[in-house]
Amino acid sequence: MKIGEIDLGDRPVMLAPMEDVTDQSFRLICKELGADMTYSEFVSADALIRNIAATTRKLHIEPAERPTAIQIYGRETGSMVEAAKMVEAASPDVLDINFGCPVKKVAGKGAGAGMLRDIPKMLEITRAVVDAVKVPVTVKTRLGWDHTQKIIVTLAEQLQDCGIKALTVHGRTRSQMYTGEADWEMIARVKENPRLKIPVIGNGDITSPAKLVEAFDRYGVDGVMVGRAAIGNPWIFRDMKETLVYGEVRNPLSLHQKFEILRRQIDESIGRIDEYRGILHIRRHLAVSSLFKGIPFFRETRIAMLRANTKLELFGIIDDVERKFASGEYGCGSDMILT
């Protein structure tokens, strides 16, 4: 699969853009573990052109994480074009436009998935951004605003006509938010449209290697984007890539290796910001990690992790959980493998 001249190989698996999740550290880890391409956190066009420090920091890309896309969102054509030029100066491999974020503070103001209620404006912005930069431009969006307006098949053609190089479709409407099941049959209809020539990337509910294989084999997408399933579980990319190559996970990481990855995330989050805010940032990864699912009294452990204010406290909790796994207190030995 290619996005412009960027060759991602056969059946690429990508890390989806997620606010407060896909910072540089997490992107690097996911890349090392098998992600073929990663995406930045959402970048507000308005905040970028106002030179807000927290936003401009999101533009930094390390060579080791490439290929990487920077994703922008906004509701005004002028600010989106200006922001696109600033993003291009940061030299991403791809510039992605967010027309899919459903949260109220974005969609409610007409940006993100809010653009699904103003298709002419969406197309105007897309066309203007494509014309303004040389970097390949892609779009990520949803099926439509609600179940009565699943317009994605026609919309995909319109976006292609604007000059985008690939389209990512999240298989839900904006009104669904993240509830219910993603409609992969609808994503397949986009891909099956003979008039659509650009790659189609599917997104939504890809939580296991088996679902990844189904997305490619049954629904025929060119690429798959993994979002929430990677939070706290970046090794999911390793398992998925091995399954695509061998038909199974041949060399799963050990429990200790996975705990070491979480410790690395904590260290790097603190190093990137500071101890207090770094721990606040990493808590969402820890709270949903599969490493802690199924352990006795998990609620108490989760609360303790969320209340920890120092690296020493947090590492102490994680060390204790790993020790109990190793000693068999959780009913399993140190050779246990969690996926």
Provide a brief overview of the structure.
The chain is of the alpha/beta class and 339 residues long. It is built from 14 helices and 10 strands.
Question: Can you describe this structure?
Answer:
The chain has two domains: 7-246, Aldolase class I (TIM Barrel, Alpha-Beta Barrel), CATH 3.20.20; 255-327. The longest helix has 18 residues, at 255-272. Strands 3-4-5-6-7-8-9-10 form an eight-stranded parallel barrel, surrounded by seven helices. Helix content is 43%, strand content 13%. With 339 residues, the chain is α/β, with parallel strands linked by helices. The protein is globular, with a radius of gyration of 20 Å.
Give the tally of structural domains: 2
How much strand? 5-15%
Mean pLDDT: 94
Number of strands: 10
Structural class: alpha/beta
**Percent helix range:** 40-55%
How large, in whole angstroms, is the Cα Rg?
20 Å
The side-by-side strand order for the widest beta sheet comes to 3-4-5-6-7-8-9-10
Examine the coordinates and then state which fold CATH places here, giving the name of the CATH topology of the largest domain. TIM Barrel
H-E string: EEEHEHHEHEHHEHEHEHEHHHHH
Poorly predicted regions are 333-339
Terminal Cα span: 28 Å
For the biggest sheet, the summary is: 8 strands, parallel, barrel
Counted by DSSP, the helix tally is 14
Specify the overall morphology: globular
CATH class of the largest domain: Alpha Beta
CATH homologous superfamily placement of the largest domain: Aldolase class I
CATH architecture of the largest domain: Alpha-Beta Barrel
